[in-house]
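Long-time lurker, first post. I've been practising inverse folding by hand and with some scripts of my own, and I keep getting stuck on stretches where the C-alpha cells seem ambiguous. Below is the full C-alpha cell string for one chain I'm working on. Before anyone asks, I'm not after the true native sequence, just a reasonable design that respects the backbone. If someone could post their per-position residues I'd love to compare against what I wrote down in my notebook.
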C-alpha cells in the first residue's frame, strides 16, 4: 500500500502467477499507452521524418515484411488515402500497424478512432457509426482523421454494402482502415462477405504474417521489444538471449504471434534476468511452459 501511495501503478501477491503478471503489464501499458503514443507522435511529426520504426509488426527483413514495407512506402510517396485492408491472425499487430499508418500519413493532431465490430448487432453498429440522435457517431468523431474498423468480416452483409456507399462518399473527409482476421477475398468467394464491400477495400491490402511465417525476423523482433517496451526497465534493455533460447522460441507454438512473444520477452526479462543480463535456458523454458498453461 505504501508503494501505491508513492506512485506505483500496481502490486502483485506472492506466490507470483504468470497470468496475473501479464494482466498487470497490460493494465500498465493501457494506462500509459495514450501518453506514450502522443509523445512518439509529437516527436515524429516535429522532426518531419517519415518513420515506421516504432511499429513492432514491421521489425525485420523477411520477404513478408519487406513486401508490406514496400507497399507502405509506395502509399506514402503517392500521397493517396485509399481504403486500407489489413489482414492477419490474432496478435500479428494489425491495430499497431493501423496506428502507425495514421501517425506517418496523417499526423498526431488528427482524430484516430478505433471501433470493434465483433459481437455487435447490426443495430448497434449502425447506431455507433451514424449516431443515435443524441450524439454524433464514430463517423463524425473521425472526420479529418482516421477511422479503424476491427473485425469487419463480422458485419452483416447488407450493412457492409450500405457502408461501402457511405464511405465512398466521405473519402475526402477521412481515412478508412479496416482490420480482418481472415482473407476477405476468400470470404467473398465463399459468399460470407459482401462483394461490393470486399472490392472497395481491396485497393490496398496489407497481409501481416504469423510469427511462425517470419521466424527469420525473431532477433529483430526481440531487439525491438527490448528497446521500446514500456514494461522493460532501462537497466534491463541490454538483456541477452542465447542461441539455445532463440531455438526454443522457434520450435514453440505462438497462437498470439508477436504480441504473445512480446509478453513472453517482458516476463523473461522482468523475472528471469541474471546479474549479468542474461536469461538462462532453463528459466526461459519454464516461463514458456507457464505461458502455455503447462504448469
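-- Answer (accepted) --
I ran through it position by position. Result:
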Amino acid at each position: 500500500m505504501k508503494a501505491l501511495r508513492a506512485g506505483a501503478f500496481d502490486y502483485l501477491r506472492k506466490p507470483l502467477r504468470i497470468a496475473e503478471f501479464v494482466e498487470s503489464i497490460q493494465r500498465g501499458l493501457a494506462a500509459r499507452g495514450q501518453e506514450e503514443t502522443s509523445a512518439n507522435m509529437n516527436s515524429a511529426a516535429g522532426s518531419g521524418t517519415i518513420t515506421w520504426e516504432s511499429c513492432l509488426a514491421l521489425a525485420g527483413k523477411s520477404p513478408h515484411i519487406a513486401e508490406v514495407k514496400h507497399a507502405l512506402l509506395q502509399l506514402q510517396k503517392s500521397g493517396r488515402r485509399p481504403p486500407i485492408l489489413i489482414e492477419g491472425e490474432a496478435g500479428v499487430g494489425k491495430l499497431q500497424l493501423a496506428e502507425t499508418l495514421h501517425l506517418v500519413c496523417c499526423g498526431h493532431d488528427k482524430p484516430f478512432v478505433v471501433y470493434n465490430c465483433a459481437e455487435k448487432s447490426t443495430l448497434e453498429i449502425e447506431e455507433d457509426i451514424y449516431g443515435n440522435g443524441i450524439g454524433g457517431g464514430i463517423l463524425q468523431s473521425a472526420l479529418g482523421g482516421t477511422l479503424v474498423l476491427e473485425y469487419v468480416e463480422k458485419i452483416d452483409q447488407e450493412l457492409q454494402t450500405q457502408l461501402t456507399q457511405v464511405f465512398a462518399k466521405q473519402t475526402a473527409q477521412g481515412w478508412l482502415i479496416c482490420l480482418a482476421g481472415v482473407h476477405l477475398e476468400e470470404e467473398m468467394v465463399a459468399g460470407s462477405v459482401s462483394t461490393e464491400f470486399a472490392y472497395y477495400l481491396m485497393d490496398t491490402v496489407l497481409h501481416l504474417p504469423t510469427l511462425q511465417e517470419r521466424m527469420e525476423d525473431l532477433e529483430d523482433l526481440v531487439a525491438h521489444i527490448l528497446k521500446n517496451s514500456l514494461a522493460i526497465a532501462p537497466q534491463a534493455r541490454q538483456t541477452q538471449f542465447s542461441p539455445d533460447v532463440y531455438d526454443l522460441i522457434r520450435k514453440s507454438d505462438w497462437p498470439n504471434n508477436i504480441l504473445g512473444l512480446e509478453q513472453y520477452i517482458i516476463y523473461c526479462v522482468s523475472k528471469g534476468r541474471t546479474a549479468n543480463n542474461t536469461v538462462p535456458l532453463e528459466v526461459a523454458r519454464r516461463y514458456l511452459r507457464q505461458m502455455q498453461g503447462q504448469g
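A couple of notes from the structure itself: The chain has 13 helices and five strands. The CA atoms of residues 91 and 256 lie 5 Å apart. Happy to go over any region you disagree with.
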